[in-house]
Amino acid sequence: MSVASTEHLSQRILQMEESATIKMAQMARDLAAKGHDVISLSLGEPDFDTPVHIKEAAKKALDEGYTKYTPVPGLVELRKAIQTKFKRDNGLEFDLNQIVVSNGAKQSIANICMAMLNEGDEVVILAPYWVSYAAIVQLAGGVPVEVSAGIEKDYKITPDQLRSALSPRTKAVLFSSPCNPTGSVYSKEELEALADVIAGQEGVYIISDEIYEYINFTGQHASIGAYEPVKDRTITVNGFSKGFAMTGWRLGYMGAPASIAEACAKMQGQFTSGATAFGQAAAAHALLSDMSPTHEMRDAFLKRRDMMIDKLSQIPGMKVNRPQGAFYIFPDISDYFGKKAGSQTIHNADDFCEYLLEQAHVATVSGTAFGAPDCFRISYAASEAELEKAVKRIQDAVANLQA
Ligand code: PMP
Ligand code: GLU
Predict the structure, then answer these.
(1) Of 37, 84, 122, 304, which one is least surrounded by beta carbons within 10 A?
(2) Beta bridge partners of 205
(3) Residues with beta carbon inside 6 Å of ligand 1?
């Protein structure tokens, strides 16, 4: 059998899209390995290290013997810390059997979809959306249904749009706020208006991905699950990767109706078991101790956002809004479509990102993977010096485009 043959692979994997964020980050690493000075603004990963007190807690946990399998849904001490956090920060009340810890929020979302979806069930995804949502829904046999808003609406959809996307087959509505890739934040009132639409149709659940909760510049994070009409139908997903700069620790969690949480634990019990023991012990410490490193990171992101918006908005043809959270900027670049750089024509956002990578050595991610083909994503989780250099390169590359 030739190495390139794929006959032995399942339809499931052959039909699945590779993660565009991870692919682009790898392309940037490959180019850098060839000796090019690449600035990677592709991956959604804080450039900060995990706060020292959390690392110390993990070292201590190792020494104390946190080296064994934990209960599948997570250490009791971590689930208790999550229970406290949900109440303290989100106004959400969960019993311990409603909380499941996983290897990243990504696995939490996969568990939920695997546990809830039957073949053909529809999941309404608010677009632009995070790359993995559609792939996970499809893997679980579901059908993603996109509802989309453009930059002129700050990438936020209306209740009427949501209403027309619901069908008798709708099982769940899935979104992130603060949003990856747009950085948009739905206000409490906007969330409640969407929730009212969902509350009007029996059997529709909400999967609220709040992983960017602590990187919110509005001063107020709202959890849709705290709204009474949808309280018992909301699954709140969160994790440690972003707010605590713990991407490599692989720790996420959910709070859900008990039947769903228990089904997710059952799924995880066959797939991966519990998350790393000493990491969980440190995560419990993270939630219950000094949050000032998290707030300092948020403030640094805010400063970078303003610097980036000021500079990007001066580039002719680059349409930007002012995102209220996360660490992404999502410009609309449709003005460049049809323009040329030498013999190369920019037909779409994929071409634009490829052009930026090859000519400017700046790695970003095309909006196509996020359900927004007119846009591209810049992750500003990089130092100010690197960001300034990257914007200058983008500006020069755009200036070389001819009608
Ligand atoms: N949700 C969103 C919106 C994300 O951007 C990411 C990527 N970090 C995840 C979930 C998954 O995060 P993790 O698996 O690292 O907890
Ligand atoms: N979620 C991050 C991103 O959007 C990390 C990569 C990934 O898990 O897709 O870039």
Answers:
(1) 37
(2) 172
(3) 44, 104-106, 130, 176, 180, 209, 211, 239, 241, 247, 252
| 72 plus 141 within the same structural domain | yes
63 within domain boundaries: no
Tell me, in angstroms, the distance from the centre of ligand 1 to residue 105's CA.
5
Residue 258: pLDDT above 70? yes
How many whole angstroms separate alpha carbon 117 and alpha carbon 181? 25
| Centroid of chain to Cα 268 | 21
Same domain, 387 and 311: yes
Whole-structure pTM value: 0.96
Same domain, 37 and 158: no
Residues 87 and 202 in one domain: yes
Q: What is the pLDDT of residue 3?
A: 58
**For residue range 272-304, what is the model confidence (pLDDT) as tens digits?**
999 999 999 999 999 999 999 999 999 999 999
Instruction: Name the closest ligand to CA 208.
Output: 1
Mean of pLDDT values over 132-137: 96
Overall domain count for the chain: 2
Q: Which ligand is nearest to the CA of 107?
A: 1
pLDDT of residue 2: 52
Q: Are 252 and 264 in contact (CB under 8 A)?
A: no
Domain that holds residue 143: 68-288
- Beta bridge partners, 366, equal 376
pLDDT tens column, 53-94: 999 999 999 999 999 999 999 999 999 999 999 999 999 999
In a domain, 62, yes or no: no
Alpha-carbon gap, residue 315 to 399, rounded angstroms? 9
30 and 104 within one domain? no
Q: Which of 263, 288, 313 is the last residue of a domain?
A: 288
